[in-house]
Amino acid sequence: MGESVSTDRYTPQQRTRYRQLLMEDLEIFDRHLQHSDFEDQGSIGLELELNLVDKHMQPALAGHAVLSHLDDEYQSEIGNFNVEMNHPPLSVKGDALRRLEQGITSRLGRVRAAATSENVNVAMIGTLPTITPEFLEDPAWMTQENRYRALSNAVMESRGELVHINIADREQIIHDFTDLAPESTCTSIQLHLQLAPNKFAAAWNASQAIAGVQAALSANSPLFLGRRVWHESRIPVFQQAIDTRTPELVNHGVRPRVWFGERWITSVFDLFEENVRYFSPLIAESRALSGTPMMKGKSPALHYLNLHNGTVWRWNRPIYAPGEERSHLRLENRLLPAGPTPIDITADAAFYYGLVKYLAEENRPVWSRLLFPDAEKNFQSGARSGLFARMTWPTLGQVNVADLVQEHLIPQARIGLERLEVNKDLIDEYLGIITERASSRQNGATWQLRTLNKLEAHGSMPGSDARKAGLAAMLQEYLRNQETGNPVHTWSIGN
Fold this sequence. Notes:
The protein is of the alpha+beta class.
């Protein structure tokens, strides 16, 4: 849902017409898949969402101001204390991963310079730990653009009730909101992988199978509204924030719009078809009002299908992009939190691309031996417990995720990266970071929790002045470490 829209509300007539045209787009897409050539370059790319904070480590409503200093590689987000950075596509082979790391570093530097000019700082972190309920209850949190107001209005009208957030682990947060404010706290990395149609299903299935491992390894969101909750609390916060279902619909088994899925697939079409079949349109913007052409070169633009697809938030989402000569498909891996550093992000990317390559080409693929519900349980376990999670894996049964990574998945990711023709020294470097992170059991989440334990007054309660002071001090230390560029497993615990 990255495009501008003309209004923040739609009439029943507009919605009815949109549904009709959405069904037509789905049929066009089916024919296009069957009869057209698609790009098959295997390129990679990345989107990165960032927080803005003031000198007191509180969220800073400076998104539009910061973007005024930047080019079109940077975009707004729903929260006006966020900006998004986009890295252009790369071939994965050779030294591309190093260029990805350097590209992230240089672009992050440009955002920091722009932020400094507005007297704010950049925090690359999954969930900003200093955000308070009071901040999110002030309407000023939202970026004032139609697309964001339209999304919030559509979700709230569909649900018909307040957004209810209820997350518990070591501590608990229960709070109701009048709009999508909690969603704005969830800042992530989205890894992109371009795939030919005949390779898409295997890559998506592989991505689903390892989602729990990714969540555990990269967890960087252990604090929500000042409470110690899941290691990757973005996962439940995001799902609950954009849930259009009432409790009764949940009990009826209606699918959530932030969705893991419910089965392995045989074709990319399965995903688009499910999105149309199970989810009503939220943003009923017509093609004419959007200014989207019917065709882009030789490819159908599929305005209605693409817009709808952007309002179903699968953790591994399919993307269709028309091209002048040939269309392309991308798999968008959406479950990683932002941060902690460019080298950590690149290591996460290397692990993901290498492991997907390996698993997608196995003669007896992992998804043929792993029940889909077990893959989802692994995902929830990884998000909740991070590097202390236990997971179900074929031939191994229940296993500690850190052992699974070190003893089984790292060697497989290495083979995958070798097949992708990545330089050996880079394979060693980036997978070495993943190995050390798993061995030390220190990712962004565990570092934040351990450091907060050191810095906050003993026995401080959520919402207390002591807790708020501890959170601000921890975030300040986090940013100092982040600016060094050193991987998170090497960070010392704050004094």
